[in-house]
Structures
1.
Amino acid sequence: PCPPCPAFSSSAHLLHKTRTKCGFRALQPPESMTDDYQDEHELELEMALDGTSVRPSQWQSDRFQLVTVLQMAPTNHGYVELLQDLQRSQLVAAKVMPISWTCESHTAFVIRYPGENEMPWRDICVTNFLAERLGPGYV
């Protein structure tokens, strides 16, 4: 198994484990993938891990219906909800955190919480990165 990676958040660590084959099935690039293509996507991943590549979108409140609160997240004053995605007819989980905790950007968060291990913007960016590549229904 993969040892803990303190530099990565939990989402990024999962991606790290996937990329490094330590305990998870490795994602293999298509044989037709060129080195330039792979280098470009690795750079995008590094930007995602940096936590600065996300552009938040407006929450679609009419698309999701609350089923229940799964867990409280006291460290970041948030909680995890189980929601029904009315557009895709499937259950999804969402972590809800106040802007007072996440701040308005990764840079602002790091300045306000310099010693914090949790990096919400990095988690958002990695989730966005994976969703763009894997498509709907995977992330």
Note: The CA atoms of residues 78 and 96 lie 5 Å apart.
2.
Amino acid sequence: MAPPGTATIIMKVTGGEPAPPAVLAPRIGPLGMSPKKLGDDIAKATMDWKGMGVTIKMEIANRQANISIIPSASALIMKALKEPPRDR
């Protein structure tokens, strides 16, 4: 359970790529955060999962985001097999 005053946002992103600000703005705009800065933070946090779709959980408190990764089974298998990043 999140402490009071904390917002939790769960969304699917492509690893190693910043989430589009147009997608982030409606979700984090009311929390007073910059979509561009948060997109860069997401890209940095998901760099190990480059090219794979992963689910992230953002816990936002005091205009600071704590980003954790919730990998899917397929992403874990791809990482374990050391598959090269997808060419998009």
Note: The chain is about 30% helix and 25% strand.
3.
Amino acid sequence: MCIRDRPNSKLRKEFLEQLAIIKTKIRKKLKGKVVNGRRINGPMMANLCEIYTETINKGRVPSVEDAWSYVCRSQCETALSEVQKHYEESVKLRLLSKVPLSKEEIKRLLKEVKCEAAKIFKSKLIGELPVSYTHLTLPTICSV
């Protein structure tokens, strides 16, 4: 059984204390990676590493630009998925809590939720919006 699969209750107290100390030291000394003014999180960095490794293993020279574009697309897909869930939950919550509603009230609430979703989506993007996602820009729905 791998150590990461074991619950903390099964690990020695001294080990957990030393682990906490080393984690604190690492966090204090490491500086976050920033690309184009955006902080790179763990999954994004792992994505970059996978792309570089795959490219090198195929005998090619990795392209920073291509790899970064792939990470941006991947982040866009993740953001889109999160925003779709948020949108659906918000619509259910806002519409169902105020039944009955007039047609105008429904339109207004949907527009509010779309605006909110657009702002969340834009805040989660890194780099430029990939060309295949340009239809997702929502300035016609609200000013983002």
Note: Helices lie at 13-29, 42-57, 64-96, 103-124.
